[in-house]
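go over whats below:
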Amino acid sequence: MSDGYGAATVIVHPGRETHVSASICAGANARVKHFPGSDGKPGFISIDQDRVGLTIALPSVRSESDADFLRELAKAVTSLLAETQESATQLPLPDLDEDPVPDKTKAA
C-alpha cells in the first residue's frame, strides 16, 4: 500500500448550504473497524486514515430502505475490489473465501 492520505474540506458559499466532504485514500495507516450494536442500538463502521475519520451508521436497520443503503455500500465496495483485482498494475488480492492461514497439516 502507498502512504495514503486523508483530507477534509468545508465549502461555505453565502446563501447556500455548507458542504462537508471527507476523502480517504487508503494507505498503510488506514483502519476499517466494525463496532457491533448492543442494547438495541445498531452498530457502525469506522474508517480512519491519518487525521481523517469517517463513521457510517444508521439509526436503525428495521426497514427495507435502511437495508438498501447497506446493500448499496456493500455493492460499491465489492465493485471497487473487483476493479482492483482486474487491474494489471495492482498486485492480485487474495480470494476472500480462502483461508488466510493455510492448514499446514493438509497434504500438498
Observations:
- The first strand starts at residue 5 and ends at 11.
- The radius of gyration is 18 Å.
- Strands lie at 5-11, 19-25, 31-35, 44-49, 52-57.
